[in-house]
Write a structure and sequence with these properties.
Blueprint: H1 11-15, H2 24-27, E1 36-38, E2 43-48, E3 57-62, E4 77-82, E5 86-90, E6 96-109, E7 115-123, H3 124-131, E8 136-137, E9 148-153, E10 158-173, E11 176-184, E12 198-201, E13 207-214, E14 227-229, E15 235-236, E16 242-246
Parallel strand pairs: 2-8
Antiparallel strand pairs: 1-2, 1-5, 2-3, 3-7, 4-6, 5-6, 6-7, 9-10, 9-12, 10-11, 10-14, 11-16, 12-13, 13-16, 14-15
Length: 289
């Protein structure tokens, strides 16, 4: 997973520019860094659902394995956890617009997918008024094979540009298993520190996924070396291959009030075990009893 080598590398962004020199395939950036967030160990983004209102508390999206409490175990789902996680909001050029801070982990898991969704202390309107920044919108639809995508990393202040190269029925890494994962073509050779970066569809400007892992050295199904498992159970390994997880799953769990409700019919996000004592709290997640 792409968090592992992030800590301590931020100084290389300015001290060693050659490390971040884009290849020709990455040089043309139709997707910018606007709305991205730099965390201490990962990338993130300022996000909204398709029907979010300006008066709603804003949200920040990153990977489950970037959760400040440590990587959730396989089968573990976290909802409505207090948080004070902070990140640096960036403009299109990667310059700082100030700090955003969470007050709640709405949802976090590394089961079936790899996401952490935070509620921020500020509304979308107040962030826009104070910084000029607007949130990226999470698409309500499944991404399309062959689509042009951009992966803007707030941590590295760099954008990778490539295309979707199919979908993986099951992606397995160490104890974790993810489903219907996004495979990139070779132009998106994302690196450690890009974990949590949004995968943005170039044509629509919508978030269709979240960058989460890649195979470092050709090992099979080990940490930092995910393997692909097809519908027949055949395992293949592609050294250097990078992957993302789909984000439209969030929109399958929205109720009439535009709130995440894990009991919504057709909701694709896994629910926590023993969740009877957890309920709705403002824009917090409602879970099935």
């Amino acid at each position: 997973m792409y968090r592992r080598l992030a800590v301590g590398l931020m100084s290389l962004v300015t001290a060693g520019a050659a490390v971040l020199t884009a290849s020709p395939a990455q040089a043309v950036q139709s997707v910018t860094l606007a709305g991205t967030i730099a965390l201490s160990n990962c990338s993130a983004s300022l996000v909204r659902f398709p029907n979010s209102a300006g008066t709603d508390q804003a949200m920040m999206l990153t990977n489950g394995h970037c959760y400040e409490g440590g990587m959730p175990s396989a089968g573990e789902v976290l909802v409505n956890r207090p948080s004070s996680r902070a990140g640096t909001l960036l403009d299109a050029s990667g310059d700082s617009l100030g700090t955003v801070r969470a007050d709640l982990v709405l949802y976090a898991t590394m089961t079936d997918t790899d996401v952490t969704l935070y509620r921020l202390t500020s509304t979308y309107d107040s962030i826009r008024d104070s910084t000029g920044a607007t949130a990226l919108t999470i698409s309500a639809g499944h991404p399309a094979d062959g689509s042009a995508i951009g992966i803007p990393s707030g941590y590295w202040q760099q954008v990778w540009n490539c295309q979707i190269n199919g979908f993986v029925p099951t992606l397995r890494e160490d104890e974790w298993t993810w489903h219907d994962s996004i495979r990139y073509d070779t132009a998106c050779d994302t690196i450690h520190g890009t974990s949590g970066s949004p995968v943005v569809d170039v044509a629509s400007g919508l978030i269709v996924g979240i960058n989460n892992t890649g195979n470092d050295n050709g090992e099979t199904c080990t940490l930092n070396n995910p393997c692909e498992v097809d519908d027949a159970g055949n395992v293949t390994v592609h050294p250097g291959q990078s992957y993302g997880e789909e984000t439209y799953w969030f929109t399958t769990c929205l109720d009439a009030a535009n709130t995440l409700d894990l009991s919504t019919p057709g909701c694709l996000l896994p629910s926590p075990q023993g969740s009877a004592d957890l309920g709705r709290r403002q824009t917090a997640v409602a879970v099935p009893h």
